[in-house]
Amino acid sequence: MSDPIFTQPFQSGFALQDGTKLNELFGFLGGSAQQSITTTGATAATAFQLSAQVNNLTVVVAGATGAKLPAMNPGEWCVVFNSDAADAAVIYSDDSTIDGTAGATGVALSSTKRAVFFQMAAGVIVSAQLGVVSA
């Protein structure tokens, strides 16, 4: 009898595995990090496309403050550090929301702040501000 809460996605023992299941399990950005990011644009179409799970905005360009979150699935997350003295805008796709705000509009990430963005459900992102720099 199968457990309705936990399903076994892989065959036990030595066997070929479904690569799709492996990608779902291990695939999200692989714990990647990107340093020295310069923002571009101010819309979902023109903002700098983040490609890592942890990102450090080091230059926030006046009038082009956007950084667009990478594509995520429910349960995945992305961290954005704003190391510049100017405020940045964190943007997602047109059909999403970040903390209830349209994803294409985005949310402000104040200068020298950092936040983690969680995809709670399809198109629903919530953020949490992280603590201060360690002393």
Task: Please describe the structure with a list of short key phrases separated by commas or semicolons.
135 residues, mainly beta, Jelly Rolls, seven-stranded mixed β-sheet, 11 strands, globular
Note down, in words, how this protein is organized.
- The chain has a single domain (34-129), classed as Sandwich (Jelly Rolls), CATH 2.60.120.
- By secondary structure, it is mostly beta strands.
- 6% of the residues lie in helices and 36% in strands.
- It contains one helix and eleven strands, in the order αβββββββββββ.
- The model has no long low-confidence stretch (mean pLDDT 86).
- Strand 7 (97-98) and strand 8 form a beta hairpin.
- The strands form two sheets. A seven-stranded mixed beta sheet has the order 1-3-5-10-11-7-8, with no helix packed on it. A four-stranded mixed beta sheet has the order 2-4-6-9, with no helix packed on it.
Major β-sheet strand ordering: 1-3-5-10-11-7-8
**What is the second-level CATH architecture?**
Sandwich
Helix content: under 10%
Q: Can you tell me the CATH class? A: Mainly Beta
The helix tally amounts to 1
* Stretches with pLDDT under 50, minimum 5 residues: none
What is CATH's topology name? Answer: Jelly Rolls
**Sheet/helix structural class:** mainly beta
**N- and C-termini, Cα separation:** 54 Å
Oligomer: single chain
User: What is the succession of H and E elements?
Assistant: HEEEEEEEEEEE
What radius of gyration results from the CA coordinates?
17 Å
Number of separate strands = 11
Percentage of residues in DSSP E strands: 35-45%
Average pLDDT, rounded to a whole number, is: 86
What is the number of domains? 1
Biggest sheet descriptor: 7 strands, mixed
